[in-house]
């Protein structure tokens, strides 16, 4: 591996002062001012991103019908729809063999997952509007462009904003001290994203229904569908988060590692979107079973496959962790660098 130091530092006598020759640390008041301005600028940029996300969410409440979740009946349906995703995120947290993650970081990541969903909604809407305005929505052409839309826009955009929630907050904390922590925080970001997405769908499907019985009937159906779709978001972003954790401890290859995680999450996500709009209908028509049953079966199989792959990846980390801690000091720890994928 190439020496990451400047040639002067690499060959200089031990103890020689190379400040502003080939090394640097804050020594003077001007250095400390520069360090402080950089820190303030980074913090301001992060705060600006969060504030924009808060404004988008507020607009959705005021103008987009999301305010309907304040109705007790709809609010209960939103909470119930998030239960399966919550259970899966809880399992990922439980499977973390390292130190438990602080509650404030878990909750903060969940909240950012909720907030940043607005960015995905805007970008998806802009791209969808472009397709609609070009008239690329009918027949085979429309079907092809819908699939392309899933792989080029929806998958990459949604997985990126969920990973942004992890990178912006817990990733930079000292408590993020293991590769597997990325999967835990990725799962929490996915849970937040799934929760607000469920709220938007449920609010939209029940909007304008005044009669409580009709509201319950409509809410039950859409909540059941959203409850099935929610765990997928946890799985996808847990994969991406795992690779973000891997990148944190492999700085020299951090960029490609993060890209790999995002590609995996986006491809699995887009494939789900593409198949879920086709496979259940084909199965229902071929067998005569109700569409919802076919959809349920598809979700169980698809999420089951990738959920097991995620569990397998976390389990391999657990085994490597236990093997490393069982070995004597200075023992061979090659398993720590052998991960799936």
Strand content: under 5%
Distance between the termini: 23 Å
Radius of gyration: 24 Å
Q: How would you characterize the largest beta sheet? A: none
Unreliable stretches covering 5 or more consecutive residues:
328-341
Order of helices and strands: HHHHHHHHHHH
The pLDDT mean sits at: 89
Question: What is the number of helical segments per DSSP (H or I, 4+ residues)?
Answer: 11
Helix content: over 70%
Label the structural class: mainly alpha
Gross morphology is: globular
How many strand segments? 0
Describe this entry's structure for a reader:
With 341 residues, the chain is mostly helical. It is 75% helix and 0% strand. Helix 4 packs antiparallel against helix 7 and helix 10 packs across helix 11.
Question: Which key terms come to mind for this protein?
Answer:
341 residues; mainly alpha
Helices and strands in order, then pairings?
Elements: H1 7-11, H2 29-63, H3 72-81, H4 83-95, H5 103-133, H6 139-168, H7 181-206, H8 212-248, H9 254-276, H10 279-287, H11 291-326
Helix pairs in contact: 2-5, 3-7, 3-8, 4-7, 4-8, 5-6, 5-7, 6-7, 6-8, 6-9, 7-8, 8-9, 8-11, 10-11
